[in-house]
TrEMBL record:
<keyword id="KW-1133">Transmembrane helix</keyword>
<keyword id="KW-0472">Membrane</keyword>
<feature type="region of interest" description="Disordered">
    <location>
        <begin position="151"/>
        <end position="171"/>
    </location>
</feature>
<feature type="transmembrane region" description="Helical">
    <location>
        <begin position="93"/>
        <end position="115"/>
    </location>
</feature>
<dbReference type="InterPro" id="IPR050578">
    <property type="entry name" value="MARVEL-CKLF_proteins"/>
</dbReference>
<feature type="compositionally biased region" description="Acidic residues">
    <location>
        <begin position="162"/>
        <end position="171"/>
    </location>
</feature>
<dbReference type="Pfam" id="PF01284">
    <property type="entry name" value="MARVEL"/>
</dbReference>
<feature type="transmembrane region" description="Helical">
    <location>
        <begin position="39"/>
        <end position="72"/>
    </location>
</feature>
<dbReference type="GO" id="GO:0016020">
    <property type="term" value="C:membrane"/>
</dbReference>
<dbReference type="InterPro" id="IPR008253">
    <property type="entry name" value="Marvel"/>
</dbReference>
<feature type="transmembrane region" description="Helical">
    <location>
        <begin position="121"/>
        <end position="141"/>
    </location>
</feature>
<feature type="domain" description="MARVEL">
    <location>
        <begin position="26"/>
        <end position="145"/>
    </location>
</feature>
<keyword id="KW-0812">Transmembrane</keyword>
<protein>
    <submittedName>
        <fullName>CKLF-like MARVEL transmembrane domain-containing protein 3</fullName>
    </submittedName>
</protein>
Length: 171
């Protein structure tokens, strides 16, 4: 019986491992690509700052790496759909705006003030991360603007109460 149970436990471990990984559909989506880019660029920038003379800036890429990694996990496993109390796109928008501003500032400082190659590399990866974060908050802003134009209503049930009122008032 021990031989029969071993494949089941390995299969459950593999299914648990694969449930953590993002789905192929999410990875191929625009949001998935942007989040993966944010995770990778933040991590590379973090490693470059650790190896550079500008190690004082190591905290910002680490925090942005962890935040992007959490949102990648949340969106890919649909964790965000379980908690309806949070407005996830707005929180993601604020994260991307702050990350792009912070990466831009620390990249300028690391490129202009520190002469070593690791600081220059961290600054260049920081500039690329700034662009990726800015693209992400641009797309999120467009989605939020469309949501707010609709008055925060879902698009599934358009209300025709205005048309009904205008017909009855014209008598």
């Amino acid at each position: 019986m021990g031989d029969i149970e071993a494949p089941d436990s390995d299969g459950s471990r593999q299914s648990a491992f694969f449930s953590i990984l993002p789905s192929k559909e999410f990875v191929c989506s625009r949001k998935g690509k942007l989040l993966i880019g944010e995770v990778v660029l933040s991590f590379i920038s973090f490693i470059c700052f650790v190896a550079s003379a500008a190690a004082a800036f190591v905290t910002a890429p680490l925090i942005e790496f962890l935040a992007a990694l959490f949102l990648l996990f949340a969106y890919s496993t649909k964790f965000n759909e379980r908690f309806k109390g949070f407005h996830w796109p707005l929180m993601d928008f604020l994260r991307c705006v702050s990350a792009s501003i912070i990466f831009f500032i620390i990249s300028i400082i690391s490129v202009s003030k520190y002469p070593d190659g690791a600081s220059k590399a961290a600054g260049m990866f920081g500039f690329i991360a700034t662009i990726v974060f800015a693209l992400d908050f641009y797309f999120i802003f467009n989605e939020l603007a469309d949501f707010l134009k609709g008055g925060g209503e879902s698009n599934e049930e358009p209300s025709n109460t205005q048309d009904d009122d205008s017909d009855s008032d014209s008598d």
